[in-house]
Amino acid sequence: KSGSGGEKVNTVNAQKSTSTLSIRTESNTVDVRGCSVEEAKTKIKSKISTSVQSGRSVIYVLHGYGERATLRTKVRDWLKTERQLVRRWNPADPSDGGDSFTKIELS
C-alpha cells in the first residue's frame, strides 16, 4: 500500500518539474496593443533579449483580444516559427489575463 502512495508523489513531482511556474508582472510583460505586426515582433524580440540576459525564462505579451484578434493571431503564428527563441507558448492562465496575453517560455 505504501508503494502506491510513493508512486503518486513521484508523479506529482515529475509534473511540477516539467512546467514553468511564473507570475505575470510589469517587468516580464511587453505591451504590443496598437502596434503593427512588425512593430510587435521588434518589441517582443527586444523583451526576449533583455529577459534572457536577466535570467528570466518566461515573458508575457499583451496583445489584447477582440472579435477579429488579428494581432494576437499574427503574433502567435510568428511564435510558431521562432524555435531558436521560443520553447513554447500558450494563452496566459485566466489569473494572468487569459487570452489577452500570450505566455512565452524562452529557449
UniProtKB/TrEMBL annotation:
<protein>
    <recommendedName>
        <fullName>Smr domain-containing protein</fullName>
    </recommendedName>
</protein>
<dbReference type="InterPro" id="IPR036063">
    <property type="entry name" value="Smr_dom_sf"/>
</dbReference>
<dbReference type="Pfam" id="PF01713">
    <property type="entry name" value="Smr"/>
</dbReference>
<dbReference type="InterPro" id="IPR002625">
    <property type="entry name" value="Smr_dom"/>
</dbReference>
<feature type="region of interest" description="Disordered">
    <location>
        <begin position="1"/>
        <end position="25"/>
    </location>
</feature>
<feature type="compositionally biased region" description="Polar residues">
    <location>
        <begin position="10"/>
        <end position="25"/>
    </location>
</feature>
<feature type="domain" description="Smr">
    <location>
        <begin position="30"/>
        <end position="107"/>
    </location>
</feature>
